[in-house]
Each structure stands twice: as structure tokens, then as C-alpha cells.
Amino acid sequence: MKHIGLMLGGPEELWPAQLASDIDAPITAWVGVDRGSLRLLERGITPVTAVGDYDSLKPAERHRVEHAVHDMRYAPPEKDDTDSELGLQVAFEDLRADAVTIFGATGGRLDHLLVNLFMMAEPRFKAYAPHIAVVDRQNLIRFFLPPAQLVWPRTGYPYIGFVNLTPVTDFSIRNAKYPLMPFASDYPVSWASNEFLGEQPIQILFSKGIIAGIYSKD
Amino acid sequence: MKHIGLMLGGPEELWPAQLASDIDAPITAWVGVDRGSLRLLERGITPVTAVGDYDSLKPAERHRVEHAVHDMRYAPPEKDDTDSELGLQVAFEDLRADAVTIFGATGGRLDHLLVNLFMMAEPRFKAYAPHIAVVDRQNLIRFFLPPAQLVWPRTGYPYIGFVNLTPVTDFSIRNAKYPLMPFASDYPVSWASNEFLGEQPIQILFSKGIIAGIYSKD
């Protein structure tokens, strides 16, 4: 399985304690986005590909990235896509990833974090969404497509929140501490702090759109 | 003007360098939510009111809060509202705030952060939304209601992103580096990394829903 780690520019203090501790399979290759490439090099990890406009890097930092990374992708500074969208596209479409785990998505610019969540609802990324995780020190996000999904507990995460990233008309949560009867909303609602019933999976049902499941710990 | 600072439980390293540096008016009183109350006390600030179920505090920490804060509000651990929703309600409805600035909303649990953004779209909070700011080390979020708003530049924030928290049919951005022609989407889109034209305000137009404006810096 080709499992790509996509490192964005968010601060290191919000990364998971062990970069590969909370994921299901080992990372087989890394892609760095903007300052994320430099952060990987500082940890002794050389990304196979670097993506970005690199405008947040000083010349010496940029030179270090260019010297170390063979496959440099230069995005124009004025572009429609964010660097993280480009990184995700490169990971799936050029590098043919089976799964992508995104690091460094939090603690930085919130407009970027929200891109990273909401881009899963874009038609071009929707098919990839179930194969993407976003991880930081306290959270692990998965994305679910209709009509019905089992959401399994994960060791170390006592809470699970669900967010309808898109409008829903019949979203329900079953077999959870706080079940949700079929629910409708034309905007996102964050159903925070739900909990699993022991080792049993929660079941979510919905007929369209996309739901984010946020595993978290205090 | 009664300007309440609402301190949530997110980590201190993501707070603004000076707690009151990026806001428009001095904080006249503080409300602490859960661990936020303890964090304020550690900075020598005594909140007028503490809100939460305090289940993330050790007994000695909880005792310290109870000893210092006169107005303690105890939320049941199993409740429909999150602690930050309760804090916002107390600030506006009981303490009659004219404005609320929220700190400590980022870097912690993402289901909570998303509650803090999306609750502005709830009917009960919508009228308050234009009087609320969310601030951290790199971001300042304001909330805008229809039909047309001027969004002014702020010193120190080179970027401005816009997110339709609700469906939009005719959202446009004018007088910005990247104008947006009337745009429709039934889910949120994060229009990241826009910029002001010098000292001029950006104009946003939309007929319903609520738009978040995220000022940010690298």
C-alpha cells in the first residue's frame, strides 16, 4: 500500500507526539507543502516531492529544500488552488497514493485549515475523501460518504464528533452514547463530544453529502 | 462598552502574543470556560464568571478556580450544549456584553473549534455574531450578516479569507485582490488568501446566511 504523508506548514508543537503513532499503516513516502518540506528535512525526513510557492521561506531555507528534494513543484503565487489542494492532487493523481495522511494542518492559518476540511466536499476530491486522514496532537479526522458507515473506536481517543460538511436531510447516529434521530440542516453542525459504547462501532446514516468524523482527546 | 473576553481551553502557545493586542477595545471582564478559567488565574486574571463541567481539571485545580471565582456556573457533563456555547450565552444574556472576543479556541479539540465557528449560524446566536471575534496567534475571525458589508484591513494581517458558513446563491467579493463573481454553493467553501487593495475596504455581498472573514498572517 502506498501511504503518503502530506506535511503542511502548521506548527510542530501540534503534531502528534510520534509522527506515525496514530495511523493505521506506515507512511511509505512524504510530500512537503511549502514550509512543511523544510520541517520534514529538519526531522531528517526527505520528501519525495515538494509543492508550493515557497514564498514563506527565506532564501537559504528555500535553497535547502531545493538542494534536498528531487521533485520540486512550483505553484504560481497567485493561483486558484491552495498549496494543500495542490499537494493532495499530486499525492493521489501523480504519485498514485492509496491513502494520504495530512499533518501540520492545524495551529496555523484557519482559512487553510478550513480549506483542508471543506475541499473533501469538492467533486474532484470526494472519491479520495474516504482514504484521507487529518492528524494532529489531539485529533484524527476521517471522512465518510453515504449511505451508511461503521465508525470504529480508536485507542487513545475517548471522544468522537461528527460534522456534516454539506447540507443533510436525514443524518442519523446509532449505537452511540448520544444517538441522533434523523436530522436536517442546510448548514454544518458540529455534533461534538460523542462517545463509543465500549468496543462497538457507531453507525452513521445519511443519503447525500459528506460527514467528517473527528476523533479527539483532551 | 462592555467587552467580554471569553477564554476557552485551547493551548496557551496559540494565544496572541499580547492577550489584548489585536482587539479593537479593552477587555472589561473575563469569562473562563473549563480549563480556560485556570489559565486566566495563572496569568493573574480573575474571571468574573466560570462556566463548564470542569471534568478536565484535577481536584486541586478545580478547587483553585472555585476559591477565586465568585460566580461559578456548573454545566452537567452530559448536555446538549458545549461549554463554549454556554459561555457565549452567559456573556451576552446574563452579563449583557456589547462585544465578545473568544480566546483559546484553537489548537485543542477540532470538534470544539468547529462548534465555535458554526454556532454563529444558529438562530439563537446569529444576532450576536457581528459582535463576536475569535482570535489566536495568527488569525482573527469576524462574522458578517447580509446583505452587504465593508471589511476593513487590519494592521499586521496581510491575508483575508472568506468562508460561507451556510449555503449561498449570490455571494460576491468586490474591491479585493481576487474579486469573486456571484457564486453559489450548497456547502461551505474557504476562499483563502485574499488581500486588500491598500487601505481600502473589501465589499462582500450576499442575500442570506452568514460569512466568516478570517484575517491571518504567516
Automatic annotation (TrEMBL), chains A, B:
Keyword Phosphoprotein: no
Highest taxon, organism lineage: Bacteria
The keyword Transferase appears for this protein: yes
Start and end residues of each Thiamin pyrophosphokinase thiamin-binding domain: 155-212
Keywords linked to the UniProt accession: ATP-binding, Kinase, Nucleotide-binding, Transferase
InterPro entries: Thi_PPkinase, Thiamin_PyroPKinase_B1-bd, TPK, TPK_catalytic, TPK_catalytic_sf
EC number: 2.7.6.2
An MF annotation (GO) of this entry: thiamine diphosphokinase activity
Pfam families hit by this protein: TPK_B1_binding, TPK_catalytic
One GO process term, biological-process aspect: thiamine metabolic process
NCBIfam families named among the record's database cross-references: thi_PPkinase
Protein name listed in UniProt: Thiamine diphosphokinase
Record organism: Schleiferilactobacillus shenzhenensis LY-73
